[in-house]
Design brief:
The structure holds 2 protein chains of 2 kinds.
Chain A: E1 8-12, H1 18-27, E2 32-37, H2 40-52, E3 59-63, H3 66-69, E4 73-74, E5 78-83, H4 88-98, E6 99-109, H5 112-124, E7 128-144, H6 160-179, E8 198-202, E9 212-217
Parallel strand pairs in A: 1-2, 1-5, 2-3, 5-6
Antiparallel strand pairs in A: 6-9, 7-8, 7-9
Chain B: H1 2-24, H2 32-39, E1 53-54, H3 63-81, E2 88-93, E3 98-102, E4 108-111, E5 114-117, E6 129-132, E7 137-139, H4 144-154, H5 182-191, H6 194-203, H7 213-227, E8 230-235, H8 238-247, H9 260-270, E9 277-282, H10 287-296, E10 301-306, H11 314-318, H12 323-326, E11 329-333, H13 334-348, H14 389-404, E12 407-413, H15 418-425, E13 429-439, H16 442-454, E14 458-472, E15 479-480, E16 490-496
Parallel strand pairs in B: 9-10, 9-12, 10-11, 12-13
Antiparallel strand pairs in B: 2-3, 2-8, 4-5, 6-7, 6-8, 13-16, 14-15, 14-16
Helix pairs in contact in B: 1-3, 6-7, 8-9, 8-10, 15-16
């Protein structure tokens, strides 16, 4: 959205206010964020949190259903619009009225059907550079691992190798009896953890989808 | 410029006036405009905020702040409206290739196949397709034929059940499908306009009418990008410049394959903001630095520790930053930080300090641009000139100011070992500050994360990478693009924890922000 200090942004669907805080950080100190929430409890909680976090001079939260009532007129126009609504195409016209020419627009929708309708509406309203992305984050877990050579089992060999290996196997049988007959597993943990044994592997549980981001620029 | 003249007197009072207020109130720095307004006389009338009208948030400001920021925002918004002289612009051709272009007087550049005078672009709008005519750029107005074609593409109305859907069952790929020969097409290119050429080609094709709507659209798109010479202009900000570099296969290495979404993620995790203090080690030719400058917006400080002989920040010049924004960047050789750390260690051990040896040749050169400030750049020379004694001493003075007070953020994006860089600079980050390291490979980040955790310098050290896929959204034809950029580098983020080895020398005072310092 090319936000920089001084920009004025409107956001619909404050929700938890996490994105509002990030916007506030980007447009402070002389910019502003107008954010709208239609659920009364969430609106009050968000308003309280902005005050507690000392960003209420940069963020104003308002209780308004922007889908049915539209966005209010904001004096001076707006540099960017962010919509996180179930029906962003309905709020699009009133948002675009406030958006200054060459301002940026972004809509976040979980379903592709919503994205399709939003893109159709954006084209109707002559927005340019309409692009849709999905972005997912993947965390890497740090661990230690060694990669050993595979073992040589002498009872599978024939010939001269067998003798060499069988003596080793006798020793192994001795050690096994000492252990109490436990089955030895493949050892992946290194005896000494150094920088060489560090591994970074993505976590198996990763978010598969959060939503599609649709960006556009006003004519 | 009017802005510069009018801005200076107001700026002189406004800037220092606001700075002294903010120096006292660090934690509530966000509320400074209203704090300043409370000190200044309140404005006479205040428009009431009704449900349908929200007055501008600047209404509560004092006159000085209003005037200053009005001029500042006007100037900054003007550059997004249309192309101006002496700015950088990004040209996107019909096939998607992007290049940066500097709009200068009497300059010619190659657009596709033709050379054009770049001055003709001044005053053209961004984002709209421009047709490259003979020596001039015209804003494309959709002609009737084009409009019709577009309509047919989007017509996804219910097809009557009786009408049999077209398929590619009977379409065979033959070069003989097009009746016009190659030389005939070339002749057409000289005489007719692009749209007419495509019309002729469609008429003379055996298979065009039998193709499905969608494959017709695909065919048209291919022909358009070949025969119609069009380009789109985009404003040059860090995001678009980042995209330009990675799209161009030969230049991606310059920015360490940093993708725009990864850049945004990096800036978000770094918590770089106005009135913050950021230390950065930038090996991406200035791209990360440009992103940080955009976030700071002229407030706060950025200290760039460059690892080469000169700071390589060519992308800073690409992004059209006004002078006061780029002024907050100070470039300091990384060698000085290493030197200072050694000094402090020996001082801590009680050994007498040895005289600091001369640093490497460090003339700061940046791409010659008019918006690029060279406040701390001594001489813009392109030859290898050893800096004078004064320059080296000035460098040391800057380093002492930079590393004297703890900083809010450390951002590292370098091909050198992350762990080695962190070992030198992490003690200068305040507890609770962010440490962000970008690398092209996992190994340096693994080592750095292990070191951060093991030395108790940071908590929640996590390594991330981003999946980034673009979608084509068209009625009945929505699917992801056939090619995606699957590699955007890796990011390590951590939160610094106060450590007994941190260097906190509060006796060094940061001088008030003023030019020529």
């Amino acid at each position: 959205l090319a936000l920089r200090p001084g920009c004025v942004v409107i956001e619909a669907g404050t929700g938890s206010g996490s994105l509002s805080t990030a916007f506030a950080r980007a447009v402070a100190p002389h910019g502003h964020l107008h954010t709208f929430e239609f659920n009364e409890r969430r609106y009050e909680a968000a308003k309280r949190e902005f005050k507690e976090n000392h960003i209420s001079s940069v963020v104003t939260c308002r209780h308004r259903d922007v889908v049915h009532r539209g966005f209010p007129t904001i004096e001076g126009g707006v540099d960017a619009v962010f919509l996180d609504l179930p029906t962003p195409w309905d709020a699009l016209e009133s948002a675009a009225k406030n958006l200054r020419s060459n301002g940026n627009f972004c809509s976040f929708s979980p379903c592709i059907e919503q994205v399709q309708r939003t893109c159709l509406k954006l084209e109707e309203m002559k927005f340019k550079n309409i692009r849709t992305f999905e972005i997912l984050m993947r965390v890497y877990d740090l661990g230690h691992s060694v990669f050993r050579d595979p073992p040589v089992h002498s009872h599978l060999l024939v010939g001269s190798y067998r003798d060499r290996a069988s003596s080793a196997q006798q020793k192994k049988r001795q050690r096994k009896s000492e252990n109490g007959g436990k089955k030895k597993k493949l050892k992946t943990e290194p005896d000494v953890k150094t920088e060489d044994t560090l591994t970074a592997v993505p976590n198996r549980n990763a978010p598969g989808h959060t939503g599609f981001l649709t960006f556009a620029t006003k004519c | 410029k009017a802005e510069a003249e009018a801005g200076k007197p107001g700026q002189g009072k406004g800037a220092t006036g606001m700075e002294t207020e903010e120096a006292g109130t660090v934690t509530v720095a966000m509320e400074s405009p209203e704090g300043g307004a409370a000190a200044a006389a309140p404005t006479g009338e205040t428009l009431k905020e009704t449900e349908d009208f929200i007055p501008s948030h600047t209404r509560a400001w004092g006159e000085k702040e209003k005037e200053y920021y009005r001029l500042v925002m006007e100037e900054e918004r003007r550059q997004f409206a249309e192309v101006q002289l002496n700015t950088r612009v990004i040209v996107q051709m019909a096939d998607g290739k992007m290049t940066t272009l500097k709009i200068k007087k009497n300059k010619r550049a190659k657009f596709g196949k033709t050379w054009q005078n770049v001055e003709r672009l001044v005053g053209k709008p961004y984002g709209i397709q421009l047709e490259i005519g003979r020596g001039d750029f015209d804003v494309v107005k959709e002609t009737e034929a084009e409009g019709k074609l577009k309509e047919e593409q989007h017509d996804d109305g219910d097809e009557p059940q009786k009408k049999r859907l077209r398929t590619n069952e009977k379409i065979f790929d033959d070069t003989g499908n097009q009746k016009l020969s190659h030389s005939e097409v070339k002749e057409l290119q000289n005489t007719k306009s692009g749209v007419e050429i495509i019309k002729t080609l469609a008429e003379n094709s055996n298979t065009f009418k039998e193709k499905t709507k969608y494959s017709q659209a695909k065919w048209l798109k291919r022909k358009r990008s070949k025969h119609i010479h069009r380009c789109t202009l985009r404003p040059a900000n860090p995001t678009t410049v980042c995209e330009t570099y990675i799209k161009n296969g030969t230049e991606a290495w310059k920015t360490m394959s940093l993708r725009p979404d990864m850049l945004g993620f990096l800036l978000m995790c770094s918590n770089a903001r106005a009135h913050g203090k950021t230390i950065v080690v930038d090996g991406t030719c200035g791209l990360v630095l440009s992103g940080l400058v955009e976030r700071h917006g002229g407030f706060g400080r950025i200290f760039n520790f460059f690892t080469e002989e000169r700071p390589k920040t060519e992308i800073m010049g690409h992004c059209n930053f006004p002078k006061r924004w780029a002024d907050i960047c100070w470039s300091i050789p990384f060698a000085l930080a290493v030197e200072m750390n050694k000094e402090r260690k020996t001082a801590a051990l009680g050994v007498a300090n040895t005289n600091p040896s001369g640093s490497d040749a460090q003339t700061e050169t940046q791409d010659s641009t008019t918006t690029e400030p060279t406040k701390n750049c001594e001489n813009k020379t392109k030859e290898d000139v050893k800096p004078s004694e004064e320059q080296i001493k000035a460098g040391y003075k800057r380093a002492r100011i930079a590393l004297g007070t703890p900083s809010d953020t450390l951002v590292v994006a370098s091909r050198y070992s992350a762990k080695a860089i962190l070992e030198q600079l992490v003690p200068y980050v305040r507890g609770g500050g962010e440490i962000v390291v970008y690398a092209e490979h996992l190994r340096p980040l693994k080592e750095a994360a292990a070191w951060l955790k093991g030395s108790n310098n940071a908590i929640s050290a996590n390594i991330y990478d981003l999946w980034f896929r673009e979608y084509q959204v068209l009625p009945k034809r929505t699917h992801p693009h056939m090619n995606m950029n699957a590699y955007g580098g890796f990011l390590l983020t951590a939160t610094k924890v106060a450590h007994p080895y941190d260097y906190e020398d509060y006796s060094v005072e940061l001088p008030p922000f003023s030019r020529g310092n």
